Amino acid sequence: MSPSVSRRSRRLTLVAAAVACATAGVGLVAGTASAGTLSGTLYRDPDTAVARWVAANPGDSRTALISSRIASQPATRWLSNFNLSTVQSEVSAYVGAAAGAGRVPALTVYGIPNRDCGGASAGGAPDLTQYQTWVSGIARGLAGRTTLILLEPDSIALQTCLSSSEITARNQALATATRTLKAAGAKVYLDGGHSAWNSGSEQANRLANAGVADGDGFYTNASNFQSTAGEAAFGRSVLSALSGRGITGKRQVIDTSRNGGAAGDWCGDDNTDRRIGRYPTLDTGDANIDAYLWIKPPGEADGCRYAAGSFQPDLAASLATGAPAPPTTPPTSGPTTPPTTPPTTPPTTPPPAGACGATYVTSSSWQGGFQGQITVKAGGSAVSAWSVSWTLAAGQTVNQVWGGTLTVNGSTATVRNAAWNGSLQPGATAEFGFIASGAAGTPGLTCTA
Predict the structure, then answer these.
(1) What would the pLDDT profile of 119-168 be if each residue is shown by its tens digit?
(2) pLDDT higher than 70, residue 32
(3) Per residue in 38-85, pLDDT tens?
(4) What CATH number was assigned to the domain covering residues 7-320?
(5) Is 255 a catalytic residue?
(6) How many helices (H) and strands (E) does the chain have?
(7) Of 100-104, 160-164, 261-265, 282-286, where does mean pLDDT reach its minimum?
(8) Helix, strand or coil, per DSSP, at residue 100
(9) Does residue 97 have a pLDDT over 70?
(10) How far is it, in rounded angstroms, from Cα 98 to Cα 103?
(11) Considering 155, 310, 357, 435, which has the largest number of Cβ atoms within 10 A of its Cβ?
(12) Is 154 known to be catalytic?
């Protein structure tokens, strides 16, 4: 199988109710976690491309790093090869192995017709009728064993190649697939795009049309590089917009496989300038977020320099460079977040005396650059817009910003709110982050509302 991802979606970067487990021993408990709706330990498949490479290359200088930082961690299994005769047995074997280990399996289902709008990851079912037959095979393979399902990356956020009637047909197919998989015991999350793509209100509208009301929520940042904090803020805007449509009780899942820092062209060198983010866990510390997952297995290519979905050790080693060691065995509870990644929620501080205040943390650093995270907090009155300014130190250059819009005038950098995070109630917060070259420091921030 070759999990592959959307070329178009990354061009935009820079530029269920709880279901009890039907099988004894599955490490998923619905409704008992301190954050989100899930708890337990994610299943790590011992037969992945990275695990096979590690086993076959014990003497390679990159093996120890790749083994400890990537092969040791659970990533989602992709169902991307359309095969009606084998999909049920493949799913049954995978989910059964997870149940036997007392772990929670996660599957990325990727077979919608005209996927990726015919881009680098083109393929899928020949038509929607056969697609539904394929999905039914997946459901039979689940056999009531609770599994996280990430349904069809890019299928909702990327619709530029579809006519209005084709969009309607796809939405109906996704809604039917959601209900089919839910009936088989799955926790189903639909495509939420990412924070640098569609607006929160637009993505919520698309999710509603695709049947998210019958699912458990949505996932964002699949195979992308937006920060965890930026995605969490974007997710809150989507949840708010869904609530405005009468759709409540949904949760977000965030892909953290490649959002740990660094910058550059997403495709020019197949992402040798990226880093892994938070380690996968169901213990998120955020009531809106059910999981941080590695939806895209780190080290598998995007289809630029290498074939989409192929494992490349140089990509894996680059992603793992500088990452802290994960726990040897991920715990069933307690934090599994690397200390250098940005927190999902800002530190608790009293509301600023003025209209707004801002605080800064260096969330990650490396030779020649760093990632910063800034939390904006409204004072005693609501604000409708905000901006934060600071003076860049000698040698510093901001290369990428999420959660806001950057302008630089001489040595002064100013970030203004994005369309979805400018309105804050008294004491409420918003976050944005950035990647910069140069040495990290603690800038003096000026917040204006």
Answers:
(1) 777 788 999 999 999 999 999 999 999 899 999 999 999 999 999 999 99
(2) no
(3) 889 999 999 899 999 999 999 999 999 999 999 999 999 999 999 999
(4) 3.20.20.40
(5) no
(6) 9, 15
(7) 261-265
(8) helix
(9) yes
(10) 5
(11) 155
(12) yes
Asked if 378 and 351 touch (Cβ cutoff 8 Å), the reply is yes
Q: What b/e readout covers 82-109, taking b as 16+ CB neighbours within 10 angstroms? A: beeeebbebbbebbbebbebbbbbbbbb
The mean of the pLDDT values for the chain is 83
Amino acid found at 104: V
| This model's pTM is above 0.90 | no
What is the spatial distance between Cα 436 and Cα 15, in angstroms, rounded to a whole number? 16
Query: How far is Cα 139 from Cα 133, in angstroms, rounded to an integer?
Result: 10
- Report CA-CA distances (Å) from 132 to 2, 94, 124, 271: 21, 21, 12, 34
For 137: left if phi > 0, alpha if psi spans -120 to 50, otherwise beta; the answer is alpha
The structure tokens listed for 73 are 């961690």
Q: How many CB atoms lie within 10 A of CB 145?
A: 22
**Domain edges within the chain:** 7-320, 356-448
Q: Which one of 60, 127, 154, 214 is the catalytic residue?
A: 154
Which residues make Cβ contacts (< 8 Å) with residue 350, sequence separation at least 6?
none
CATH topology of domain 356-448: Immunoglobulin-like (2.60.40)
**What residue type is 141 in one-letter code?**
G
User: Which member of 45, 47, 116, 314 is catalytic?
Assistant: 116
Q: Please check whether residue 36 is in contact with residue 291, taking contact to mean a CB–CB distance below 8 angstroms.
A: yes
Q: Is the pLDDT of residue 207 over 90?
A: yes
- Torsion sign (Cα): 274, 276, 282, 285: negative
Q: Region 376-396: what's the mean pLDDT? A: 91
Distance CA 399, CA 177 (A): 40
In order of 110, 272, 315, the CA distances from 62 in angstroms are 30, 14, 11
Whether residue 47 lies in the annotated active site = no
Q: Is residue 27 within 8 Å of residue 282, measured between CB atoms?
A: no
Residue type present at position 386: W
Joined together, the tokens standing for residue 395 give: 């040698």
Q: Which of 45, 191, 290, 302 is catalytic?
A: 302
Q: Is the pLDDT of residue 368 over 70?
A: yes
Nearest CA among 281, 262, 284 for reference residue 273: 262
Q: Which residues contact 11 (CB under 8 A, 6 or more apart)?
A: 266, 267
DSSP per-residue codes, 71-97: ITS--PEEE-S--TTTHHHHHHHHHHH
267 CB burial (10 A radius; 0-12, 13-18, 19+): middle
Residue closest to 251 by CA, chosen among 194, 319, 307, 189:
189
